[in-house]
Amino acid sequence: MGSRFLIWGGNGWIGSMLCDIVKQQGHTAIVAKSRLQDYVGICKELEDIKPDFVLNAAGITGRPTVDWCEDHKQDTYLSNTIGVVNLADACWRKAIHMTNYATGCIYAYDDTHPFGSKFTELDPSNFSGSEYSKSKTMAEKLLSIYDNVLTLRIRIPVSGDSHPKCIISKLIKYAKVVDIPNSVTILPEMLPISIKMSQSRLTGIYNFTNPGAISHNEILGLYKKHINPDFTWNNFTEEEQNAILKSKRSNCQLDTTKLESFHHLTEIHEALDKLLNSIK
């Protein structure tokens, strides 16, 4: 008999994929109706549904980009910080395990963390260049008191479709891109692992990316190889990028040692090459 998963953000990009995976694994996926801001509504829904597990893929990333969060700070923190803690607390009081799909965009290369260095789960956040990232960092700190929460840090997610939030869909529309190595999460490979982690009732923080780091140029090179041989692009510096954006962007590599001790992962270059070849 399968488990019952109650999923916040179940109609969104990652949430809808989670619903499909849960069903494919023989479990029941229920999309939550209450909003993260509504603590009373959350408690009532948990009582009515009585889920075995809660997955949270809800939150604000901004449309069309995280720059939106700079002008909507209150909405950003209400959802990404206060709302997530609401859900964690309500689940804790009912002894329900919660998996929170978070972000690794809370770090940035600097003088003490040059290219090639990796950030572990124990490293304090060193990036505060955007309200989005600050809201996520604050949520992590507040969630640390709850022993029922698994936090998975996703970075630069890639799917096997042309969804507008997929990094490939974004990059091919940009006039110029920066060429900096970053951690990336291949969702078709990684999201099924997250369900296994939930069922294992793991808690704490895990960097949730494929091992290694890949640059935008390398991503677009694989796109050119498998999808569009005629595609071309141009580069600019991080400083030039910052000049045209309202907020800075996180660039970093996350250490996946902790996650790899739980499940085998595919190195990012191999994983992306395989994914793009499959949808060629």
Describe the structure in your own words.
- It is built from ten helices and ten strands.
- It has helices spanning 13-24, 39-49, 73-93, 131-143, 167-171, 187-199, 216-226, 238-243, 257-260, 268-278, and strands spanning 4-8, 28-31, 53-56, 97-103, 149-154, 157-158, 176-177, 185-186, 204-207, 234-235.
- Helix 4 links the parallel strand 4 and strand 5 (149-154).
- Helix 1 (13-24) crosses helix 6, helix 2 (39-49) runs parallel beside helix 3 (73-93) and helix 3 (73-93) packs parallel to helix 4.
- The chain is globular, with a radius of gyration of 18 Å.
- The mean pLDDT is 94.
Short description:
With 280 residues, the chain is an alpha/beta fold. It has helices spanning 13-24, 39-49, 73-93, 131-143, 167-171, 187-199, 216-226, 238-243, 257-260, 268-278; strands at 4-8, 28-31, 53-56, 97-103, 149-154, 157-158, 176-177, 185-186, 204-207, 234-235.
